[in-house]
From TrEMBL:
The keyword Hydrolase applies. GO terms for biological process: glycerophospholipid biosynthetic process. Residues 50-63 have a biased composition (Basic and acidic residues). Residues 46-67 are annotated as: Disordered. One of its GO terms (molecular function) is hydrolase activity. It comes from Cordyceps javanica. GO terms for cellular component: mitochondrion. The lineage of its organism: Eukaryota, Fungi, Dikarya, Ascomycota, Pezizomycotina. Keywords: Hydrolase. Pfam families: Hydrolase_6, Hydrolase_like. SUPFAM superfamilies: HAD-like. This is HAD-superfamily hydrolase, subfamily IIA, CECR5.
Length: 467
């Protein structure tokens, strides 16, 4: 199936109308006065209106604007068209440890009725599992109230992919935990999801390191519809047996566990004839064709869930992510093609526009705090946005994505970089490659800065308070 079709339908159902239209180190309580603006910062958004400032300036003294009972929130009129998107790893926690003040900050935003989502390049698990993990690490006792339906993983936009792809296609899923990813793919609606371990179990000659079949690759399932991974003996024959396995999409769900096996299998499919395992395309290397014939013979589309080269854990040196696997695959591909053709793939996650569009639409239709009577008939009420603040720790994904995203409704996305994660200034690279609107110490300072930019006379102490 052509990747253009998937591109036009890879957004959530609530986004289909827009698609059809054209479609590092935390120092806790650093004063906001110490926040460093980038040298050439553009004040693209200007000053807030007098009305907004008058409304917002009363926040610290007028608690009647919002609900405080933890079971519901009125929408603070000062922030009715403002929203936040938070990265998770390196912003709200590092490894197993929560960032100081993250819990209280989120509780205050929820209390004020502000819209927010969590936009992470993490994946490989159900969104609800990420909610539970986030709640545990930052110490939230009421995750349903604070986090429910707000977590967007790198692969979440796949939920809205075309039903024909899900019902009739066969997808190969690679991940750090392939069985978990397979179950999640099925929950997303993919009827036929196979893993590299399935292929290895069906044909041991696919991979020469047989001892790993009893350890790393011991979990597998039979191939769907009685298909075989050993039906083809002549890779150039076009007399394809009826039971030959055909892969329609390759989904790199999150950080693959066994790079060697996964790169081998992905390579085999990208040089195949129309995605039939065990075949070779006669077009490979034909310089009379586009891309020297590589990936020009109906091979499956390759989707990468995110492009993060590194991510932040408790370990002092950043750890490799899915982007590192992609770079390794690119290296092998360059060797196979002798540099004649770049690897063709599609990416989700930040900084992909697909992911930012999905998040923006989620915020537009964000109605957790809107009474049922105020929603439009037959669906969720669309609440216009004027500005969204992206708070992240990775300049290559969080900041770049927000800077480059220009939603069709004219809302502005502004980027805020925190020092608690991936970004660590060095002598060789004192400034991030992609410049944020502002750099702050941590996520609490980020929210204080954003609300002050909206004209609210707020403080760090107020944001961390219960009232």
């Amino acid at each position: 199936m052509a990747h253009g079709r998937v591109l036009s339908t890879c957004l959530a159902p609530c986004y289909r109308s827009l698609a059809r239209a054209g479609v590092l180190r935390c120092r806790g309580a650093a004063p906001v006065a110490d926040i460093a603006l980038k040298t050439t910062r553009r004040r693209a958004f200007g000053s807030s209106s007098r009305e907004l400032r008058e409304k917002a300036s009363s926040i610290e003294h007028d608690s009647t604007l919002v609900g405080e009972n933890g079971t519901g929130s009125a929408i603070n009129p000062a922030f009715a068209d403002v929203a936040f998107a938070f990265d998770i790893d390196g912003v709200l926690y590092k490894g197993q440890e929560g960032i100081a003040g993250a819990r209280e900050m989120l509780q205050k935003l929820r209390q004020q009725g502000l819209r927010y989502v969590f936009l992470t390049n993490g994946g490989g698990a159900h969104e609800n599992a990420k909610v539970a993990s986030l709640a545990k690490r930052i110490g939230l006792e009421n995750p349903e109230y604070i986090l429910k339906d707000r977590v967007i993983l790198s692969h979440t936009p796949m939920r809205g992919w075309d039903e024909d792809v899900k019902n009739n296609g066969t997808v190969l899923v690679t991940a750090s935990q392939p069985e978990t990813a397979r179950q999640l793919a099925r929950e997303y609606g993919f009827k036929r999801a196979v893993t590299p371990a399935d292929l290895l179990a069906a044909n041991g000659h696919i991979y020469p390191f047989a001892h790993l079949r009893d350890s790393l690759h011991k979990e597998f399932s039979p191939l769907p519809d009685g298909k075989s991974a050993a039906a083809i003996s002549d890779p150039y024959s076009r007399d394809i047996p009826s039971d030959a396995l055909k892969i329609d999409q390759i989904l790199v769900w999150n950080d693959p566990r066994d790079w060697s096996l996964d790169i081998q299998v992905i390579h085999d499919l990208l040089v195949s004839h129309r995605g039939y395992l065990g075949t070779l395309s006669a077009k490979n290397g034909d310089r009379t064709l586009a891309n020297a014939g590589w990936q020009q013979d109906g091979q499956p589309d390759l989707w990468i869930s995110n492009l993060d080269l590194v991510w932040k854990t408790e370990y002092p040196v950043n750890r490799f992510g899915t982007g590192a696997f992609l770079d390794a695959l690119k290296g092998v591909w360059a060797a196979v093609t002798e540099g004649a053709a770049p690897l063709r793939y599609q990416a989700l996650g930040k900084p992909s526009r697909h992911t930012y569009e999905y998040a923006h639409d989620r915020l537009l239709h964000y109605d957790a705090d809107v009474p049922e009577a105020e929603r439009t008939q037959g669906g969720k009420r669309l609440r216009p946005l004027r500005r969204v603040y992206m708070v992240g720790d990775n300049p290559e994904s969080d900041i770049r994505g927000a800077n480059e995203f220009a939603p069709r409704d004219g809302a502005q996305w502004e980027s805020i970089l925190v020092r608690t994660g991936v970004f660590q200034p060095t002598v060789a690279e004192p400034a991030p490659r992609y410049q944020p609107t502002v750099i702050v110490d941590d996520v609490v300072d980020a929210v204080v800065w954003a609300l002050r930019n909206e004209g609210a006379d707020v403080s760090r102490e107020w944001l961390l308070s219960k009232h």
